[in-house]
Amino acid sequence: MSTLTHPPAAPARRTSPYAVEMRLELLRLLRSPAFALPMFLLPVGTYLLFAFAVAGEAVAKDPDTGRFMFAGFSVMAVTMAALFATAPHLALEREQGLLTLKRAQPAPPGAWLAAKIVAGLLSGAIAYLPILVLAACTGQAHLSGTQLAAMSAVLLAGTLPFCALGVMLGSLTSGSAAPAYANLVYLPGIYLSGLFFPLPKSMHFQTVLWPQFHLDQLVFAAGGVAKFRWIPPEMAFAVLLGFTVLCSGVALWRLRQAA
To answer: In this entry, which stretches build a coiled coil (predicted)?
Structure first.
């Protein structure tokens, strides 16, 4: 009597729930034209306009002008993408009750939050990459490869405070109001911090209030650019660390209240 034999079952593929959440979150952002097009095209477009078309001659004559513009538009790219990749989507999901659904699923409780932070970091990297390629290929920033690498590392790490800010805004505001609040908090900072043009001395007192200023200072310190450094890098790092802890603490408190 013959015995039927079955082939051994293929081992089940096990994928980390964190990896699944991160992949899905990033795909959702990339497939959203309302987010992807402005976040990824606006920074490099404005960098091309001002650093090459408007101030091209000034950059060629004064290398410090090229370094100033590269740092400013790079900070804009990573911070704007990180903030808007987290705040509006988190607020909308919280309003629709999707976070309650995620808590009921058999997944680690922090997977969705880690996914949003990683998606914000990667969004900042994607927005910054075209600016980095332009600067490296054209020499418009007048920076060496070592300087560009050090400044890039600081820029990518600098997305974390703005991810924390986005999570805080997303936990406090409604889905429809989150983009407006994000703009209200973010836009004054990129102008009043002096990212794009030197401010008059009468306005220097308020630059330290903006996290974009402190990230800009760390970027200059990493690249060894002394001309535009106004505070010690240790102070800038301490301010950004405290800002991250404060925003994260408020966000976690609010999300626990909503649970």
So the answer is: none
pLDDT in tens, 155-210: 999 999 999 999 999 999 988 899 999 999 999 999 999 998 888 888 989 999 99
d(CA 29, CA 57): 37
pLDDT at 145: 92
Separation of alpha carbons 18 and 236, rounded Å:
31
- Whether residue 112 contacts residue 102, with contact meaning beta carbons closer than 8 Å, is answered with yes
Q: Is-contact 82 211, C-beta < 8 A?
A: no
Q: Is residue 1 pLDDT above 50, yes or no?
A: no
* Maximum Cα interatomic distance, the chain, rounded to a whole number of Å: 98
Residue 81: name the closest of 48, 114, 151, 32 by CA: 32
Each domain of the chain, given as residue ranges in start order, spans: 17-258
- Contact 80/165 with Cβ under 8 angstroms? no
CB 79 within 8 A of CB 124: yes
pLDDT-derived band at 246 (thresholds 50, 70, 90) equals very high
- Total Cβ atoms within 10 A of residue 210: 22
Instruction: Give yes or no for a contact between 108 and 116, defined as CB atoms under 8 angstroms apart.
Output: no
Retrieve residue 232's tokens.
């010690």
pLDDT at 11: 46
Residues in Cβ contact with 151 at an 8 Å cutoff, skipping those fewer than 6 apart: 71, 74, 143, 219, 222, 223
Q: Which residue has the higher pLDDT, 140 or 259?
A: 140
Distance from C-alpha of 67 to C-alpha of 102, rounded to nearest angstrom: 45
Could you give the CA distance from residue 21 to residue 144 in angstroms, rounded to a whole number?
37
Model confidence at 63: pLDDT above 80? yes
What pTM does this model have? 0.88
User: How far apart are alpha carbons 137 and 129 in whole angstroms?
Assistant: 12
